[in-house]
Amino acid sequence: MSKSNFVIAVYVENKYGVLTRVTSMFTRRGFNIDSLTVGETENPDYSRITISLSGTNSDRMQLLSQLKKLYNVRKVEVISAESGIKRELLLIKIRTTTETRAEIRDVIDIFRAKIIDYSTEAMCIEITGDTNKVDAFIDNMKPFGIIEMCRTGIVALERGPQSMLEK
Amino acid sequence: MKISGAEIVVETLIEQDIKTIFGYPGATVIDIYDQLLKKNDRIEHVLTAHEQGAAHAADGYARATGEVGVVLATSGPGATNLVTGIATAHLDSVPLLAITGNVATDMIGSDAFQEIDITGVTLPITKHNFLVHDVEDLADTIREAIRIAKSGRPGPVLVDIPKDIQKQLCEFTPGPRIEKGSNPPAKDEDVKRAAEMIAEAGRPYIYFGGGAVRADAGDLITELADKIDAPIGCSMMGLSELPTDQPRFLGMQGMHGHYASSKAMAKSDLIIGVGVRFSDRATGNIDRFSAGARKIQIDIDQAELGKNVEIDLGAACDICDFLRKLIDTVEEKKNPNWMIKIEKLKAQEAEQELPDFLPEKAIKAVSNMIDTDTEIVTDVGQHQMWTAQYFEFKKKRTWISSGGLGTMGFGMGASIGASYGSGKRSVLFTGDGSFGMNLTELATAVTYNVPLTIIVFNNGVLGMVRQFQTLFYDKAYSNTTLNRKTDFVKLAESFGAKGFRAQNEEEFKKAFAEAYECEGPALIDLSIDKDSVVLPMMRPGGTFDKLILGEED
Description:
The structure holds two protein chains of two kinds.
Chain A: E1 4-13, H1 18-29, E2 33-40, E3 46-55, H2 57-69, E4 73-79, E5 84-95, H3 101-110, E6 114-118, E7 122-129, H4 131-141, E8 146-151, E9 155-158
Antiparallel strand pairs in A: 1-3, 1-4, 2-3, 5-7, 5-8, 5-9, 6-7
Chain B: E1 2-4, H1 5-15, E2 20-23, H2 30-38, E3 44-47, H3 51-65, E4 69-73, H4 77-80, H5 83-91, E5 96-102, H6 118-121, E6 128-131, H7 138-150, E7 156-162, H8 163-167, E8 169-171, H9 188-200, E9 204-208, H10 210-215, H11 218-228, E10 232-234, E11 249-252, H12 259-267, E12 270-274, H13 280-283, E13 294-299, E14 313-316, H14 319-329, H15 336-351, H16 358-369, E15 375-378, H17 382-390, E16 399-400, H18 410-422, E17 426-431, H19 432-438, H20 442-447, E18 452-458, H21 463-472, H22 488-495, E19 498-502, H23 505-517, E20 522-527, E21 537-538, E22 547-548
Parallel strand pairs in B: 2-3, 2-4, 4-5, 5-7, 6-7, 9-10, 9-12, 10-11, 12-13, 13-14, 15-16, 15-17, 17-18, 18-20, 19-20
Antiparallel strand pairs in B: 1-8, 21-22
Helix pairs in contact in B: 1-2, 1-7, 3-5, 3-18, 9-14, 11-14, 12-15, 16-17, 16-23
């Protein structure tokens, strides 16, 4: 069976230990996660976990069913490829020299990234976008020398007027 | 009036109709034990010899009754000793409430004496667990734990209560008994689709498991089988839901299942799975398992649908509701060629019978000599498979065995719990290996005068592993020859139980007749050949086309 990437959003009770319960289930069931983010939502009683992973269709069904069985999970949805807005944020520190600085700035402009910190030897850059854009930006930065980088993983919302919790 | 957290624990259990709990005291549950003493006219506590025995006893109690079994243990080692028992209940979907004490809230995280993060330890083996932070939440947490344990697909729930919470005072008002919530009904389109698939099939086979036992679905399964002219088989967990002599019932299928049952499943063109998870022991090589058959799976747990094998139709709903609607919807049919084939398979199975096979003779003798409502409990290994194969079940819920986890040492605790649950005698079939693991619970059985007959199939080896070594490891018997000098008769007597010895069928029957009449526990040491094997056998990862039927295979 062919594998594909998918993004799942999960509303969980905003209580101590809940993230462990979710991630422990992934480990136990052998799901391999590409990224996982968690944060507050419009409702203080709930946190939202966004999980990105690749797997077969039956992996996806199994993951959804297992998530729904967890006591603290309130709602689980697959963010569809068509109507989902997916973003992640990258902070990246690049080595710079007098010769490369202008060229780096060109790439930053093209990708609509932002310089956050600047010194004679290095630059810290922030960029948001979907995974493909962030990947492409990293590829473009590689020749200059990446000192270190950190990306958040995907957060995602469905387009349209309603909230997932009320759906 | 305000009462202590410890008193709330006991009052909540009483409120929830819990009559018997199993456990072992310790520093962080002294307050709860103090209350158990004060209220012992309303709730009984059974003191076991080891917390593992208490966990298995609560499990056996739950399996025998269908109600929640409760176990109580102290923090640290008390709590970790429950782990195997909780995991056993988890794998077999048994409603279990484990209550543990913990160190006081302000000590948590300090590696205090007998402190362990038991909610962390049991995270993957409980349906859910709770650490109580506030005495105000205590009663509702226990109620919620009981609700979770018994609702939907049942399972174990642990509630960890720090010592200071047990001492704090709080208002308590008794609440109503929590009933199992109702399960979602079957969808009409699923029922319609199932009826169509049955109409299109020529060789239907109904395959049920533990979910059918919990749902009490046996009669509906029989009714469906009669209407669509299908044979019936079950997983090990399904045993006793149908009487062994039910004409359509071919018995347990799987790795050591009945020849006719396993073969019929492999040859069918439609498998109707009812409350069964198609475990690897039941299917063998998943990729080649019944590749020619379409599969319908009906289960209360959505996550089981298609988890282990690909299915053509899955329904996550109340099993009985689905079966009732399906019986109403499906066209009556006859499959004469298929049923002729089934009769042939049964005849072939009868031809394979081993002459003078002592384990079979002993188990069949017990079948004939006991009251039909006796609970049959096993440990894990060859004796378990033989009992599953040869025992003739007549009543529902009389089979208690560790299926999913395969826990050696399960039997002693479980049979004590089963006797408490049923109020009747239990018969435990065990082996010298399994019995050796938790035989200390003999002390419990004697103390409480539990009506229990223990049959030790004594072959001096770890027979099941030895069988694998015989067949697949060139008879290299690494660490499976016990060669112990234990005299089980004297051992039983030293614990205060009756002991009997038997070497053959006649001696066994005589010993059993006497042992079964004993008021309290009695043990029979039955010597069997160390090279007795469980047949048929499917090679691990094999298929039902190539069952091992005799030693020459």
